[in-house]
Amino acid sequence: MNPRQFCRELGYDTALVLTYSFDPIFFEKVVLPDLRSGGTGRVVVIADRSEADEAIARTAGLLKFGGRRYVLSEANGVGGAFHPKMILRFGPEGGAAMLATGNVTSGGWGGNRELATAWRFGPELPDIGAWVRPLLEDVMKWSGKELDRMTVAQVAALPWLPAAGTKSTSPVAVLHSHSATTLASQLASRWAGRKFKTLHAMTGSTDDKGAMLRWARNTFGVEKFVLAVTPAASSLRLNLIADLNLTIVPVTDEFQHAKFYWFDGDDGPAAIFGSANCSAAAWLVPPSQAGNVEAVICYDRPLEADFGDALALLSETPQRPTEALPETPKASDNEKPLSPRYRLTAAVLTEETQRVSFSLSPVPREGVTVVLAVDEILLTCSRAPGGQSFLAEFPEGVRSAVPLCIATITDKEGVTNTPPRWLDCVGALAEAESNVTYSGVPNLEGKNGQREQSKVARSVQTVMEALFAGISRDPMGKAIIQPAGAKRTKPDDATRAGDPLDPISILCAIDEVNVPDRREATQGNWRELSLTGLMRLLFTRPDDDGGDAEAPQAGESADDERGHKDDKGRAANEKEENGPEPTDVDARHAAKVHAAVETCLEQMAETWFIRNCTASNLAQAAAFPLAIAEFGRKEGWVIPELADAWVARVISLLFDSRSGLLKIVRERYASADRADEFAEEVGHGALWALLVTVVTNSAWSAISTFDKALMIRAISREKSLLGSADASRLRRLICELRVKDAFKVMTRRVPAIVIGLDKLEHLIDSRWEEATYRKGGAANSPWTTGDLLYRKGVAGWVTFVRELPCNRFEATRLGKAMPFQESDDIRYVNVTQVSLEDANIANALRIVVQASQGRGLAMEVGETFEQMGRRAREQLVGLREGS
Fold first, then answer.
1. Which of 325, 298, 309 is nearest to 210 (CA)?
2. Considering only CA atoms, which of 197, 199, 219 is closest in space to residue 265?
3. What confidence tens digit (pLDDT) does each residue in 51-62 have?
4. Which residue range(s) make up the domain with 698?
5. What is the pTM of this model?
């Protein structure tokens, strides 16, 4: 099934998301826009407490909609892990559910091996939803915020929901563990009297004893077990499972994260899949006693055809545990991180009064000092009436879209800082409910692949981090966001589309901005986004339902989407950064990446993409082959000629004078009165920075060094790519790109090229009438192959090749040969010959060529063109390219 299509289904205004791990960046980039395009304006996410803490801290400063378009809450009152993976959508006439084995992360939505199913429930449907109200009652107990509980209460009041205790006759049931009730006890009751001979199972992790398997043997008489698991994720100890008739199907080509159980016997099969791993904590220990909260779907009489892929894996030749499992298994993840003495359970801003109310758990006693920091601005707090919460005035100076709140409590035991929490903005959340817009531009599907461990795969992941860690957008594609508590205003003249900043001014200003820490610039969990995932995100046709998605091409190692870690903090199946890599793996991965780039370039030229792509998809699609070309060329798994060909194709697709994608999409947005949105999505500078850097670093054999300089200037002056850029933002983007010498290229070489070309043309124009021409010039020397010719206006710069009849000649422009006409009215300056007579022109030309070649001549900080020219000491041997 296609999870993105599920999120886009119309008719549901509220969504309840239950997950263990949560990636807010992925959610804001993919899931939230899909939900809103389907008409869902009220969204509540409940995640495991420790995972929510980590996600909020990890994505500080990178989000735009947390607390404004959705609410994130930590699960309370759970002794073990809060581990379900469900999305429930509710509307006035019915609901829809998606139950999966993967979390709401890029890995959980395609990067790992996962299973998922979706269905509708409600009156007159096969599933009337008898399981929903009991689940909602427990969600009310888990919810940590009043905003959550209000939403759940409104859903529970829907008149079509069955009353508590309603019996269902469906052969499919949703089970969840809660309080003192385990999955095992519910399943034993449901299948009472049934017996099975075999159990084939897939799991993401295990305990050390195989407790769930023993329970199945004792309860249902299972005699034989087959378990598919990634060996590095298994905690089974060989000496503790020796009495089990167990064989292992080791999964090594990708991370096995699905949880699936196929029971079979004389009475026929039964099946289960969902969040529950093969462990005691998932099946046998109740949440009230440190067990997990899990959710599974139970099939009493399943058909083998419905589970063909899973059963195919389980039918592979199994191995004995001693052959398949490591002698020293992975340690069981039973210990939860220590919880701070106080937690900030909610922080809410009421925009009308500009007042922040927040609550702590436990509630501090009277006399305890409480201070709240909002984006590091300290606020004086007072207790609210009743003494159970606190109040503070919202401060001026908060500019982040998603402010972080941290409470500091000083009592007799010391000083405690709470984990950070987002500030939930009541007005913005209400507006999100009422202003849901159905997307007019088809969203592009995303079914992510896998990450395989090689230097090729690591480079691809780095590229994806840079492409997707930048600008978020709402369902209409709009990326402008106001600070929390601020009134909405239209963009002023300085930021309005159509008034972009001058590129060279931005580059010169970059040096005045502090370089952000590289780790800070690349926060986020986008290392999980896969190669196939990127292709699916960018290039799914409007009528594609995702059912024939390409098989994953590169895998991930993740323990609930973050990876099994060794004692050095690395993924268990990841080698040291500088360790040896198997050549065959690199070659195989390189071939897949090559194919993906070719697919990307082909799809960008397709009519359906040109007509339907969003501005952000255009920028990401163009950036992908550019970044891969640069990384692959640098690391040796893309030959330079192929990398240059990719870059040239991207430039042709973007900048063709009549059918260039930039022009077509810009005009499409302008005709829809969305020019500001185009400026925000394409004009933030990422694509511009990548284009200029990669082209500058290229060493094309098909075009001359001077032609490359002309191309760099043309790209750098494309103001539509800088419609919303500023020096600080652009510098951060340069750090995120991680392209070799990107900072030096952008701040030194490019200004030298652009200013040098401008200076060169100014010098030629100033002595136009006295310069050496083809006809009637002072020297009247014959033109030689490779001479640079310049003409004011349309023609610009060309490189002479040979004479043709009828006052015509052949020349190249950007590597393409074509005929040119000359006459008394159409004259060209032979700049090569003029430079032999004019030292200023010769010096300007030398600077442009050498800066384009990267031979060390570049503008230093604060240097003028004349100062740079005086540094050009090398003697001019010849100005023909290649000399």
1. 325
2. 197
3. 999 999 999 989
4. 455-479+497-564+581-740
5. 0.56
